């Protein structure tokens, strides 16, 4: 990531023309015949040209400053798979008093018919809006008359009251781009911190001076005119095991640092953490709620009754809050109203619940702090200077002896000290009411652990009858408990599981510790399934890889420029012992394997044998790291490839 701090002064040069846009509707044969092989031979669509123009202007109606953003895109569609790129979604901010608006929207599809380009103009009735959340509204439309080979084009103007973040520009998207250009005009009285994220480099950046681009209270203000250009931009391909794409896509971000007032003063928007600490300590929906020990003072003796040490007290308080307040599925670092109301209604957002937890822990004379963080799908936070809008979540931290525990009481099925995976994202900022805030690593406190044990015997008619026992801990247990509790009862869960398992029939079951989240979850199933159809009892093939087989490599790129982030380490073990009904020879079997990742990053072990009429198979798949860097990607890819290749081999048994 590059970080550039730019201070814009007043300049006295001639006004530059605003638009460096390309002409709408001027489709050429070069556009229509553009060879995708020059950029990406597998692309289903390619952006031929993309231009953005952003400036701060005085709104004639409200007489307030607004951001005016113009966006113009021309795109080539190569096949039906590329038709989805013609579904355009424009997110817009809204709240009770301010909202972003769109005007001058036009969209057309161009097809080459009888040696002429024929334009199909989108009907305005095809545009509709959708309220996505309390603060987000979507404008959606689809380009008409799509064919393989169509060129589509659209443009619009967005007007926004949000000057703090100016307007982000994403050079990189899910399809390649030939030319992506962003032109910004920033008045000299505004100072923005500008950051270029992502792996791709700018092709060109040009800074010019533009005179009298804005007039406020009769005063003419000069601008900096900055052009950012990126050519031949590859598509950003999302794979599994990653945090927010915004962390890695090549894009320009703006954050307002300060504004020079016309009277000579300056308003600063970039604060120090000392300023933020003071603000949050007195913030009525954060710091003030952390202090509400009075709400729990009389309850604590009953909650912690029987606890013999601080850890047991903390666990008791944690379990109490999990039961008292149900999460309403909203994130937040601030309480919606206050924790008293959340306790009364027994419902609240993330901050309502975890601020209640902090206050209750404090009432129990435990050392509790708040941690503000950004969830995995929200992106990483800026470490160079505080940007409160980067944070969207709050959890609790309790310090006991020389150990600290991070707690989130929104998920009743998670054990004490294990955060939801959504929170495992780089670092959070610890807010303490009595001392300066500080950074803390957000790491999973447990591995995801699963052990499968199959003990059975093969019958003379080619069936295996036996017991499959599964032990789960960490995130594995959490996910399994959540799956089971989606049903009205464990019996219904098993019934649906039996329907999904086409080869395996479940005849009986027992699930232990379903509600005891601090303990290992154990599932015990009596199963039967056929491995030999009976056509040849003397010789048959049998694959031992029917428990959680690896059939598809999750890593398929030639190169990955962003980390593989699993969230936590994992350990999966499979043990099988199957007794045969008669003497058999083992003519073929999968090769025993012992392969590892560099730097003790993980390993895969496989061993199998036939001994005294019993087939034994042992597998171990371990990932010791939560995060693997881009340079380790090809090792992971090869690691999986070798496992998959070996699992294609079967046992060949001969009587």
TrEMBL record:
Keywords: Signal. The keyword Aminoacyl-tRNA synthetase does not apply. Residues 1-19 form the signal peptide. It comes from the Bacteria. Residues 299-380 form the Transglutaminase-like domain. InterPro entries: Papain-like_cys_pep_sf, Transglutaminase-like. Pfam families: Transglut_core. This is Transglutaminase. It comes from Pedobacter kyungheensis.
């Amino acid at each position: 990531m590059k970080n550039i701090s730019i201070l814009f002064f007043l300049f006295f040069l001639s006004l530059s023309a605003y638009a460096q846009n390309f002409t709408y509707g001027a489709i050429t044969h070069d556009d229509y015949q553009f060879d995708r092989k020059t950029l990406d031979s597998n692309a289903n669509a390619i952006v031929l040209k993309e231009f953005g123009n952003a400036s701060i202007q005085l709104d004639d109606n409200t007489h307030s400053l607004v951001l005016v953003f113009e966006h113009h895109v021309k795109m080539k569609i190569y096949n039906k798979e590329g038709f989805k790129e013609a579904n355009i979604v424009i997110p817009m901010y809204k709240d009770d008093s301010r909202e972003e608006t769109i005007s001058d929207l036009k969209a057309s599809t161009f097809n080459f018919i009888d040696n002429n380009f024929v334009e199909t103009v989108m009907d305005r009735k095809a545009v509709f809006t959708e309220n996505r959340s309390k603060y987000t509204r979507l404008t959606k439309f689809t380009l008409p008359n799509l064919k393989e080979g169509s060129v589509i084009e659209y443009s619009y103007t967005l007007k926004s009251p949000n000057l703090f973040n100016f307007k982000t520009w994403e050079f990189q998207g899910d399809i390649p781009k030939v030319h992506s250009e962003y032109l910004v005009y920033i008045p000299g009285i505004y100072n923005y911190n500008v950051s270029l994220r992502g792996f791709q480099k700018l092709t060109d950046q040009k800074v010019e001076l533009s005179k009298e681009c804005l007039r406020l209270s009769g005063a003419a203000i000069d601008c900096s005119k900055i052009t950012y250009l990126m050519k031949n931009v590859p598509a950003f391909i999302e794979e599994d095991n990653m945090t927010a794409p915004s962390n890695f896509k090549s894009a320009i971000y703006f954050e307002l640092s300060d504004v020079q007032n016309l009277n000579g003063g300056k308003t600063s928007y970039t604060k120090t953490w000392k300023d933020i600490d003071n603000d949050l300590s007195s913030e009525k929906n954060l710091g003030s709620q952390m202090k509400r020990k009075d709400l729990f003072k009389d309850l604590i003796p009953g909650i912690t009754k029987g606890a013999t040490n601080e850890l047991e007290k903390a666990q008791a308080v944690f379990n109490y809050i999990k039961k008292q307040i149900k999460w309403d599925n909203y994130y937040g670092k601030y309480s919606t109203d206050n924790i008293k109301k959340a306790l009364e209604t027994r419902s609240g957002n993330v901050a309502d619940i975890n601020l209640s937890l902090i206050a209750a822990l404090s009432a129990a004379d435990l050392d509790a702090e708040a941690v503000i963080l950004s969830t995995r799908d929200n992106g990483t936070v800026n470490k160079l200077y505080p940007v409160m809008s980067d944070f969207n979540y709050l959890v609790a931290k309790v310090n006991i002896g020389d150990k600290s525990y991070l707690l989130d009481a929104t998920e009743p099925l998670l054990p004490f000290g294990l955060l939801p995976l959504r929170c495992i994202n780089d670092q959070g900022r610890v807010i303490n009411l009595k001392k300066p805030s500080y950074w803390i690593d957000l790491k999973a406190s447990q591995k995801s652990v699963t052990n499968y044990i199959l003990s059975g015997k093969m019958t003379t008619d080619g069936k295996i009858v036996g017991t499959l026992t599964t032990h789960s801990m960490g995130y594995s247990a959490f996910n399994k408990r959540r799956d089971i509790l989606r049903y009205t009862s464990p019996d219904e869960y098993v019934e649906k599981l039996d329907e999904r398992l086409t080869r395996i029939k479940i005849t009986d079951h027992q699930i232990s510790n379903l509600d005891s989240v601090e303990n290992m979850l154990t599932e015990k199933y009596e199963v039967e399934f056929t491995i030999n159809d009976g056509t040849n009892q003397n010789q048959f093939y049998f694959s031992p890889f029917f428990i959680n087989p690896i059939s598809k490599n999750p890593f398929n790129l030639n190169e990955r420029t962003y980390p593989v982030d699993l969230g936590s380490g994992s350990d999966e073990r499979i043990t099988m012992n199957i007794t045969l009904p008669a003497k058999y020879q083992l003519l073929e079997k999968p090769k025993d394997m012992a392969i590892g990742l560099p730097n003790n990053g993980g390993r895969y072990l496989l061993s199998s044998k036939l001994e005294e009429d019993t087939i034994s198979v042992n597998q171990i798949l371990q990932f010791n790291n939560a995060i693997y860097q881009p340079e380790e990607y090809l090792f992971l890819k090869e690691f999986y490839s070798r496992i998959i290749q070996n699992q294609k081999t079967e046992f060949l048994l001969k009587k």
